[in-house]
């Protein structure tokens, strides 16, 4: 039998002592961030919010909610299901976006799955984006899809704290319980976004070319095309470039979508003709905004391995990378191919997930005898049982938020 898990909500003493280490380190960060001038209107009140969300030990605290976007294209139905089973938690929200290229049969198949899964019916927190968008590889339509999803999430559910984008090449390295547990210690305005103003070779390949994405005005899938003239580097704002995989706060995304400053809007127009705008839009907005630049953590919280410079596409991770995945402490990794054996090892050793079942957590009350599905019986969605992954994530975040890594690496 395994040792009983330590409950956040119950908060036993031994557990508190350890978590306090994290809390105290983070409280310095919290303080710095709380001292920043307020930006924009406060988050709308949610029906489930607890009275004081600034201290992890104030009363019967509930963890923050995460809002996921999972994008996929043709032929990825099985991968979407597996990823969803691995990252699913009844406390969070999941929006699935299928590119317009996905066949109606495939779409209907996924739709049936969402409509028939008992857990989804009960918690009603998984849904497909109704009208699919045309998505052109490297075109601004990739960015508009993300903004579309964020707008849906802002409008339909107002009690999430962070937005996380994934595609079928991503996979989690720890159960959601661990992520929710550790994120409940973080200031809610932190934005995890890998960025740099040192754009190097990308100046000539990204910033100067002008492209047009036919996906903006037509239904047929076509490639972006290039305009003969080049443009100069912008002088009214500074360009930043980084990873398109982000974990962004409610407050920053509300600022981007509602645009009460003109910055998010003018930059959106600038990025319409920018190659691979999803590697620069949020980065440039956040770093040019006085109110948000100090909320950035320069990491995307994904474990990725690169071959050589220039960093074009990440390596496909395999079994031989397993110990590095484990040691990284990152909550997610990419990229994985569909058949990679390392996914089975992650399921077994890190997620404790059986084939075609959800990754179990504190919400699963069923039998954990071999062959039984612990999540066949479910309880309260906010009961969290962190596992070993939470300690890896704690270490990882403390390192990112220490004096050498946090402030000096913001928007430079
Ligand atoms: C952001 O942090 C820098 C350096 O710590 C500080 O000088 C600046 O005033 C801060 N900006 C805001 C808007 O608080
Ligand atoms: C990863 O695998 C995919 C599919 O097999 C392949 O198309 C891609 O080139 C691979 N990536 C690298 C960096 O090898
Ligand atoms: C994994 O799940 C099984 C049953 O589903 C349970 O008996 C076991 O204790 C779990 N292991 C860990 C490490 O959580």
UniProtKB/TrEMBL annotation:
Name of this chain's protein: Uncharacterized protein
CC per GO annotation: membrane
Membrane topology type: Single-pass type II membrane protein
Pfam family, one: Branch
InterPro entries membership: GLCAT14A/B/C, Glyco_trans_14
GO molecular function: glucuronosyltransferase activity
The organism of origin for this protein: Vanilla planifolia (Vanilla)
Location in or out of the cell: Membrane
This protein's record includes keyword Transmembrane helix: yes
Keyword presence, Glycosyltransferase: yes
Entry keyword set: Glycoprotein, Glycosyltransferase, Membrane, Transferase, Transmembrane, Transmembrane helix
Superkingdom to which the source organism belongs: Eukaryota
Transmembrane segments: 20-38
């Amino acid at each position: 039998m395994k040792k009983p898990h330590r409950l956040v909500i119950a908060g036993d003493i031994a557990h508190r002592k350890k978590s306090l280490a994290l809390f105290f380190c983070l409280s310095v960060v919290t303080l710095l961030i709380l001292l920043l001038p307020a930006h924009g209107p406060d988050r709308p009140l949610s029906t489930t919010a607890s009275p004081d969300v600034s201290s992890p030990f104030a009363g019967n605290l509930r963890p923050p909610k995460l809002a996921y976007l999972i994008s996929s294209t043709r032929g990825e139905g099985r991968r979407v299901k597996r990823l969803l089973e691995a990252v699913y938690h009844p406390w969070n929200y999941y929006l699935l976006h299928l590119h317009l290229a996905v066949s109606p049969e495939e779409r209907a198949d996924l739709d049936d799955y969402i409509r028939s899964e008992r857990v989804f019916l009960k918690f009603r927190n998984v849904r497909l984006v109704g009208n699919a968008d045309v998505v052109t590889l490297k075109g601004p339509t990739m960015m508009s899809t993300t903004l579309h999803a964020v707008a849906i999430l802002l409008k339909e559910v107002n009690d999430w704290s962070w937005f996380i984008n994934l595609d079928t090449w991503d996979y989690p390295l720890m159960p959601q319980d661990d992520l929710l547990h550790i994120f409940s210690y973080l200031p809610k305005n932190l934005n995890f976004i890998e960025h740099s103003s040192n754009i190097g070779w990308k100046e000539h390949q990204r910033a100067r070319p002008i492209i047009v994405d036919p996906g903006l005005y037509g239904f047929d899938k076509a490639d972006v095309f290039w305009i003969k003239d080049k443009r100069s580097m912008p002088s009214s704002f500074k360009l930043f470039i980084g990873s398109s995989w982000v974990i962004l706060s409610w407050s920053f995304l509300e600022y981007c979508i509602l645009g009460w400053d003109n910055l998010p809007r003018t930059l959106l127009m600038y990025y319409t003709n920018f190659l691979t705008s999803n590697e620069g839009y949020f980065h440039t907005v956040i770093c040019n905004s006085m109110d948000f630049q100090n909320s950035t953590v320069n990491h995307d919280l994904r474990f990725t391995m690169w071959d050589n410079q220039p960093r074009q596409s990440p390596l496909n991770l395999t079994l031989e990378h397993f110990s590095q995945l484990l040691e990284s402490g990152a909550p997610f990794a990419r990229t994985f191919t569909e058949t990679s054996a390392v996914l089975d090892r992650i399921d077994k050793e890190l997620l404790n997930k059986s084939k075609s079942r959800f990754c179990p957590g504190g919400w699963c009350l069923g039998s954990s005898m071999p062959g039984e599905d612990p999540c066949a019986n479910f309880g309260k969605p906010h009961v969290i049982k962190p596992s070993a992954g939470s300690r890896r994530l704690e270490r990882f975040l403390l390192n990112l938020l220490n004096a050498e890594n946090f402030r000096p690496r913001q928007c430079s």
